[in-house]
Amino acid sequence: MQIKEIKLEDLNPQNFIAEKTKEISATVGQGLAINALSGGVDSSAVTMLGHKALGKRLKTYFIQNGLMRQDEPQQIASLFKGFGVDVEVIDAQENFFKALKGVTDPEEKREAITQTFYKDVFGKLVRKSGAKYLLQGTILTDVEETVAGIKRQHNVFEQLGIDPKQAFGYKIIEPLVELRKDGVRKVAQALGLPESVYNRMPFPGPALSARVIGEVTPQKIKTVRQATTITEEALAGVRAFQYMAILHNDRVTGIRDGKRDFGLQIEIRCWDSTDARVGKPTRLTFETLDKLAQRIVTEVPGVVSVTYNITPKPPSTLEAV
Amino acid sequence: MQIKEIKLEDLNPQNFIAEKTKEISATVGQGLAINALSGGVDSSAVTMLGHKALGKRLKTYFIQNGLMRQDEPQQIASLFKGFGVDVEVIDAQENFFKALKGVTDPEEKREAITQTFYKDVFGKLVRKSGAKYLLQGTILTDVEETVAGIKRQHNVFEQLGIDPKQAFGYKIIEPLVELRKDGVRKVAQALGLPESVYNRMPFPGPALSARVIGEVTPQKIKTVRQATTITEEALAGVRAFQYMAILHNDRVTGIRDGKRDFGLQIEIRCWDSTDARVGKPTRLTFETLDKLAQRIVTEVPGVVSVTYNITPKPPSTLEAV
Q1: Each residue of A256-287: pLDDT tens digit?
Q2: What is the pLDDT of residue A144?
């Protein structure tokens, strides 16, 4: 199957929205469709398109995996509520933390999250809902990376625990598949989504679990979540492609109240980049770095040390794991 | 025993040297003395004082523990050779790496090194040499820290594996015990030692093993040694109290030749401080940081990421472990 790319300069967002809404309506007819919203620009745009086309016949779930940033589930549900979209938040924190227990290898962590999401949580919701249509925010880059072997190629319904042989009638709708990220941002803006969504900083699929080196536990996620909130506040005014806080597994010596404290280290990364393929550390001022480090060691329990990454990509990557 | 401090403003280095040389001569008489030289300012000054007083009747050892910086043993032996001091380099690398195998706790690492040094290596040399006098570079701050319980109080001869009950006649000579570091530097300069010794940057007792987080292995020491050489070259012109490279135990994702490389991370620390009690990260330029990171990821095999520490002491400490 050859997908015809819609280049940014050829994209008329209003026409695109009208066309895709019509296509979704025609495909689903009087049936039910289902989708998972993560708050990213792709799944947000798909939710809006599906809602325009199907109204209440689109069932949208937000999977609370326990790995999101501070207040993220509530903020996203409340944002879409304002557009008349009911988002059902599914608390699956236990499932995810159970799957992540004892897992330290980054690839195995990703796999544990993928499996838990598809098989354990979202798969059950799809089967229970009776929906035969699944809306997904796949974009052209995802397809290319699958073909190139960078991301795994997969049969989505098999991942959802639905036997493809018995699954006649199940259908995946991917309205964004002719676009790249820049096109999706333009469509998201035209759909009336706020800048915090259409210009949202990249955030990894495995969420904060990608920001914890070594085993992921509720306590470690809590720590990195606090550091993330502070980092995002402190660097909000900085023109950067992406910034993040990473919790190390290594412990380092610190002093608290005159006593030795073998404590935690947080690493800050802040990237200048246009497309994530190459990147350079943003040249933040030492005033900014000082304040950020000071806030983290003061406000995040257990942290005694903060570093700033000074390596370009390559050989570094933007995310640590 | 009350030690009377010689304050810096009251110190006449030439008189001090003449007096201590006389005292050492009088104490040792026609006997033999022994000392261990590490290349630090304290043990270097003691070696010179002992040499002035005793000539060939002072036996000076340099213990090659395998944890020193690039070419350090050779450089120190060659420097002292120029002063007519024969330094015998004892290769004890295997003893130290054996003692460090599997040890990850920082305190246990220190203890393993202390025990290996005293009991296993230097103790044997003392007993074999027939020397009844041991010259040590103890300074006033060491004594105070022992009394305050920061450093362990210890009976040195017991640590050397010499039974105190049978050890009648063994004597420790501590010619620097009335001085603090600044006084020792002045004396070392007056003794004719080069600036690289009398103004030597602080370097920890456990040497590069203090710069490896987690287990210390010959390979890890090799890696951190290479990073240390580059860091010391790159920051040589910077006015800072101390700078260092630290090898993390955590691995992070990198890219090499277009492929994923789960690699090593080096942390750089560079401190503004006057007395090591408090410190602030030096505000290096990003030009300097960029070049340093670039050299490390290019020249040190396996390293894909370099960070710069931005935390003050406290709550950080100058060294990581």
Answers
A1: 888 888 899 999 999 999 888 899 999 999 99
A2: 79
Say if B230 is an interface residue toward chain A (CB within 8 Å). no
Tell me the mean pLDDT in the region B296-301: 98
Asked if B71 and B39 touch (Cβ cutoff 8 Å), the reply is no
Dmax of chain B from CA atoms? 70
A215: nearest CA in chain B?
A: B250
Identify the pLDDT of residue A170: 81
Q: Are B158 and B164 in contact (CB under 8 A)?
A: yes
Q: Which of A261, A269, A310 should one mutate to test binding to chain B, selecting the residue with the greatest count of B CBs within 10 A?
A: A310
The sign of the torsion formed by the CA atoms of B189, B190, B191, B194 equals positive
pLDDT band (50, 70, 90) for residue B24: very high
Burial A304-318 (b: 16+ CB within 10 A, else e): bbbbbbbbbbbbbbb
pLDDT exceeds cutoff 90 at A178: yes
Q: Tell me the C-alpha to C-alpha distance, in Å, between residue A27 and each of A32, A134, A306.
A: 11, 11, 52
Q: Residue A303: which H helix or E strand, with range?
A: strand A303-309
Rg of chain B (C-alpha set): 21
Over residues B245-252, mean pLDDT? 97
Q: How many CB atoms lie within 10 A of CB A157?
A: 19
For residue A127, give every residue at least 6 positions away whose Cβ sits within 8 Å of its Cβ, in sequence order, or none: A160, A161, A162
Contact B160, B167 (CB under 8 A): no
Summary mean pLDDT of chain B: 93
Q: Is A120 helix (H, G, I), strand (E, B) or coil?
A: helix
Q: What are the Cα distances from residue A63, in Å, to A16, A93, A123, A158, A277?
A: 28, 9, 12, 19, 29
pLDDT of A259 reads 85
CB contact under 8 A, B263 and A315: yes
Whether residue B254 and residue A316 make contact (CB cut-off 8 A), yes or no, is: yes
Residue B252 confidence (pLDDT) above 70: yes
C-alpha A300/C-alpha A302 separation (Å) is 6
Instruction: Read off the pLDDT of each residue in A101-110 and give the average, rounded to a whole number.
Output: 93
- Chain A residues 238-257 with CB within 8 Å of chain B: 248-256
**Cβ contacts of residue A30 below 8 Å, gap of 6+?**
A57
Average pLDDT over residues A20-34: 96
Write the ipTM. 0.91
Question: CA angle, B10 as apex, B183 and B186 as ends, to 5°?
Answer: 25
Rounded-to-integer distance, Cα A311 and Cα A292, Å:
19
Instruction: Give burial (CB, 10 Å; 0-12/13-18/19+) of A207.
Output: buried
